[in-house]
Amino acid sequence: MHLGYLGEVDRIEREEGRRNFIKKAGAAMLVAGIAPSTAFGMSSAKAADRGFNGQGRMGMSTGEDWIDTFFTGGADEIIHYYADDFVFEDITFFQTIQNKEELHRAFLPFNNSGPDSPLGVHQFDIIRYDGGPAGDRTALLRQDAPEGYSQQEWAMWSADCMTGADHDYDEWAVMNWVWKAQHNSDFMGLPAKGKTTHTRGITFHCYKNRKIVREFTYWNFRHVAIQCGVFPEPNKFWLNK
């Protein structure tokens, strides 16, 4: 979801200068003077008794830890929750990331959640966590294009989903969450400035040794557009009135 702000980040950087924006957003690409590629090897300062740094079966505290760290630790901390070999996918944006420096940049917009942030104030809350041990598994993939698809067409629509299928995992989780955003600027071309929007989202995680090796995230863009006055409310014709 944060990928939607990267274009706005670039615009602000052009208008105000990269140094000024990074200072305003509280998002330094250096960690104590160390480049991200070096800093990513540093251990997290999070307490060792909860969430990703705990022991035993992962659960609701894992999801809360993951969400909270975006705001309490920012990009420099959340990056440690991902394995060295990982795939991050935001299905809404048709985007996958496999490089930690790119992932760090994608997470930067949420480093500053204060009321004066140029990108607004964001709050994420886990509603439901489902998950558990998975043994030692890898994904099972469809081998042939379905009837009605050319190989090229099928590859375009399936390639992102298939990426990272060789990453084995020992635990999985599905998290449903709600995103509340108070917008201080427009969002993805929508007239969002000055508005507060809510939307549901869902994230599927595959873990290996308590690190994320595969992430699928999807959130309801249409409902944000409805609240911004761009899309109409859905016609729930199937309901009795």
Name the features.
241 residues, alpha+beta, Nuclear Transport Factor 2, Chain: A, six-stranded mixed sheet
If you consult CATH, what is the topology? Nuclear Transport Factor 2, Chain: A
Give me the secondary-structure category: alpha+beta
Q: Domains counted in the coordinates: how many?
A: 1
* Beginning-to-end CA distance, first to last residue: 35 Å
Multimerization status: single chain
Helix content: 25-40%
Taking all residues together, what is the mean pLDDT? 82
Describe the structure.
The protein is α+β, with helices and mostly antiparallel strands. It has a single domain (2-41, 61-139, 147-227), classed as Nuclear Transport Factor 2, Chain: A (Roll). 28% of the residues lie in helices and 27% in strands. The protein is built from 8 helices and 6 strands. Strands 2-1-6-5-4-3 form a 6-stranded mixed sheet. A hairpin with a 2-residue loop joins strand 5 and strand 6 (211-219). It is globular.
Write the layout of secondary structure elements.
Elements: H1 6-16, H2 18-25, H3 36-39, H4 60-72, H5 75-78, E1 82-90, E2 95-97, H6 100-107, E3 121-137, H7 151-162, E4 169-182, E5 196-208, E6 211-219, H8 221-227
Parallel strand pairs: 1-6
Antiparallel strand pairs: 1-2, 3-4, 4-5, 5-6
Helix pairs in contact: 1-2
Gist of the model:
This protein is α+β, with helices and mostly antiparallel strands and 241 residues long.
